[in-house]
Amino acid sequence: MDFYKITTDETLRETVRHGNSSYPFAYYPENLWQFDFHRIDWHWHSELEFLFVANGSALCLAGTNRIELHEGCGIFINSGILHRFETQCNTFIPNIVFSPTLLAPERSLIYEKYIVPVIKSSVSYQIFDPHISWQNQILQLLSQIFSIQESGQNKELCTIQLLFQIWEILLKHLSMDSDSLHRLNHKQARLQTMMQYIHDRYMEPITLDMIAASASISKSGALQIFQSGIHISPVAYLIQHRLAQAAELLYTTQKSVSSIAEETGFTSSGYFCRKFKQYYLMSPNEYRHFRKE
């Protein structure tokens, strides 16, 4: 069975290029259920993102919040915000991802006056509820953008015109505070430093002390940053990352379960199998057969 999987670098920055330098815009008519383990895992990008739940429902984790997105709702994810989507059912989520420079060149009057206040603000996300008038206006404009991506003629010009309308509405209704985002980015930088440490050394014995030391903070500070940022502890994230690497090896190699357990930093194959089944609801061998069906 084939699944989609998001690819990120060691800081969790998404590595896929959205559009190109001449037109930095991409449209993705995606079914969240078709992603590996029915989730788009933790990632961030400098681009802006607008997503709509056309059917089904999704859980979005963005900034320090858990957001339930029901059918008919949408969300805006600001530049540089760490986020994740997951679902328990078939969920169609058409979305667009584009560079802020699509709206205006950097250092131009339009960019400095109308774009920078949003991307440098405390706003990490904005939900769009169809029952709220101004938010429903944005949802309707997004629907038009999605529709014209299927047509051929003048779709770039029409897309940008609609994006400007969306942006004007956002500017009128968002409450922005630049200092808050600077504090958030400082915490996110430390979180990403610790995540990178885990990604680089997950095959080795790692303790909470070592993870905290990688970002020059205390153990309690590390626990607080992980809990507020991605809602789990550093050690739990380490185990999840080890399990994800093991799952990939189960699918792409013929290595034994015990060999994979050792290679991904688990102290015993028995402990590895218990954790794998607890997290993925199937044994390593069952997962290997499931992925190859």
Protein architecture, described:
The protein is an alpha+beta fold and 293 residues long. It folds into two domains: 25-176, Regulatory protein AraC (Jelly Rolls); 180-292, Homeodomain-like (Arc Repressor Mutant, subunit A, Orthogonal Bundle), CATH 1.10.10.60. The protein is built from ten helices and nine strands. It has a five-stranded antiparallel beta sheet with strand order 1-8-3-6-9, with helices on one face. A four-stranded antiparallel beta sheet has the order 2-7-4-5. Helix 5 packs across helix 6 (219-230). The longest helix has 24 residues, at 178-201. The radius of gyration is 21 Å and the shape is globular. The N and C termini lie close together (5 Å). Mean pLDDT is 89; it is low at 178-183.
Distance between the termini: 5 Å
What is the CA-atom radius of gyration, in angstroms? Answer: 21 Å
Structural class: alpha+beta
Count of spatially separate domains: 2
Unreliable stretches: 178-183
CATH topology label of the largest domain: Jelly Rolls
Mean pLDDT over the full residue set? 89
Give the strand content: 15-25%
Q: What is the CATH first-level class name of the largest domain?
A: Mainly Beta
Count of helical segments? 10
- Compressed to H and E, one letter per element, the order equals EEEEEEEEHEHHHHHHHHH
Largest sheet: 5 strands, antiparallel
- Strand arrangement in the largest pleated sheet: 1-8-3-6-9
| Shape by Cα distribution | globular
Assigned CATH superfamily of the largest domain: Regulatory protein AraC
Measured as a percent range, the helix fraction is 40-55%
Number of strands: 9
CATH architecture of the largest domain: Sandwich
